[in-house]
Amino acid sequence: MRSVVLLLLGAQLAYAGTHSLKYVYTGVSRGIDFPEFTAVGMVDDGQFMYFDSNSMKAVPKTEWIRQNEGADYWDSQTQGLIGSHQTFKNNIQIAMERFNQSKGVHTFQKMYGCELNDDGTTQGFYQYGYDGADFVSLDKNTLTWTAANPQAVITKHKWEATAFAATEKVYLENTCVEWLKKYVGYGKDTLERKVSPQVSLLQKDPSSPVTCHATGFYPSGVTITWQKNGQDHDEDVDLGELLPNEDGSFQRMSTLNVGPDEWKNNRFSCVVEHQDKTIRKTEDDIITNFGDSVPIAIIVGAVAAVVLVIVIGVVGYLVYQGKKGFKPVSASDDGSNSSART
């Protein structure tokens, strides 16, 4: 299978909000064994609904949404997303023409949503990407679109000549927040639980990098840092993306790339902070493939399996879809379901 570069648009949108509602759409050009279009809905970074162009059906992914919304809700979601699928196919072709591309696998991406803070304040965001890079994003305060490259300027001018930005602003500041509150009410017991992470230090062999792996935690806010001889150390560190587990919890990795001599001559430790709990792991805690420790291959294999599930099931982490008059409705949270060409 050919690889697809996915832009994790959510990475730079981590507000300090208590709860969030986010939708991610992915359009993929033909030439790869992958659905042409996927859509994922997430509350607090956990998936609660899914749609793809193979099944042509929006489905619940949590018990709390399954128990509280019936057939009318899912029919509305399905019909809107079927329309979005067609729009995506058109927009990928338009984008390929603008970028002077006649072949190859390409993605058009979109992510939008809102966050609700403890003090009642809210934020909203609306972004598009193409082939793993920013394309255009909404500034809802000025009702303008910011083009990330020359190819997106046409889209910027086209959308600013309409009421597109104004309708999206209404959705982000009103409908989105209203449905977020409703969803949190549905899943309160699940969404407001607190589970501390399990932390492991993993190393394949004495010359390999050391990975600090935190998993099983909820909510998603976690900080992973390294210390060298008791002082903060941020050089030669690769922080991985936040990823969901099958049970609704989360995992994240941070890898320290230092040589055996530097590791031997210094005292390194990984510090994981989650809610009010701090977990520290040192060299004595390393799990390896050498010596008598538990084989790292078992753990890495389990992580890889989870990541595979994520790639298949949360593929909406990368998105596009333009909309023509995002119309707030009361029947369901389907603000994502009307579309416009780029």
From TrEMBL:
InterPro entries: Ig-like_dom, Ig-like_dom_sf, Ig-like_fold, Ig_C1-set, MHC_class-I_related, MHC_I-like_Ag-recog, MHC_I-like_Ag-recog_sf, MHC_I/II-like_Ag-recog. SUPFAM superfamilies: Immunoglobulin, MHC antigen-recognition domain. One of its GO terms (biological process) is immune response. The chain crosses the membrane at residues 296-320. It comes from the Eukaryota. Belongs to the MHC class I family. This is MHC class I antigen. It comes from Ctenopharyngodon idella (Grass carp).
